[in-house]
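User: My advisor asked me to double-check a structure prediction for Exosome complex component rrp4 before group meeting. I don't want to rely on an old file, so could you generate it fresh from this sequence?
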Amino acid sequence: MENVDLGALALKEANVDEKALANQAAQEIQLATPGQPLTSSKAFMRGHGTFIQQATVVSSLAGVVERINKLVTVRALKARYAGEIGDVVVGRITGLGTKRWHVDLNARQDGNLLLSAINLPGGVQRRKSESDELRMRTFFTEGDLLVAEIQSLFHDGSISLHTRNLKYGKLRNGTLVRIPPALVQRSRSHFHTIPCGVDVILGLNGYIWVSKHIPPEVVEANPEEVYSNRNDPDITDEERTNVARVVNCIIALSRQFIHIHETAIVYAFEASLTYPLKDITTDRVASEIGLEVRSKLQA
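Assistant: Sure, here is a fresh prediction for Exosome complex component rrp4 from the sequence you gave:
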């Protein structure tokens, strides 16, 4: 029979349990305050928004805790959006420049959408000419909302966008919701269709677009509608109500500091069906919806 070192085995099990508890604690903490301990496990590394104090990772600001593998970071709730290449963002046109549009992205400065970085009506791919520059306002004009992707970042903090895809472009048939960028959870896709027949675009800059559902085949069949300024005339009262309910659910989730993603929105929508539409954003109802969404997410 082999000799087993019971002391070493117990110490090993204790270390495993400590790491598991620390891992679980790091995952459960979503909102941190300055000076709040996050984890004491040596398996984790400190990231932005944290510091080391007596072998413990401590938050240095108020924000949302993010854990990527063994890296623990804290994103500030009130910070401006800092873009990354490939991010999906929702913005508003604020002005026109030389062969470009200026776009409000909730960042430190406006982003730039170059004339060469868009698709022409009908999906035509060709070099943009002077005539295209003269009719730039027929594509996008001041006040228009659009969804785009970050193409590049520059040393001065400026952001360059592109809309070279049919899923990007001008937004219609919906409404805009503004929430703190830290609450928008990164995922593989930021284009979602809620079962109630509502499309949601989760912009990583904190701007979320909620609109009537339009099947992809309809968009592909009518590429000239990409730059249309008119909403569809056949939006029903039920579709308008569902859009408004989803908007109020997102506002309620943000007030409860819950990460915004497709699953949380669906749970919040289901929980809100027992309340009148106008009461969803009140403190009492928002708190009840938040508790139910948290319980379902943890389950």
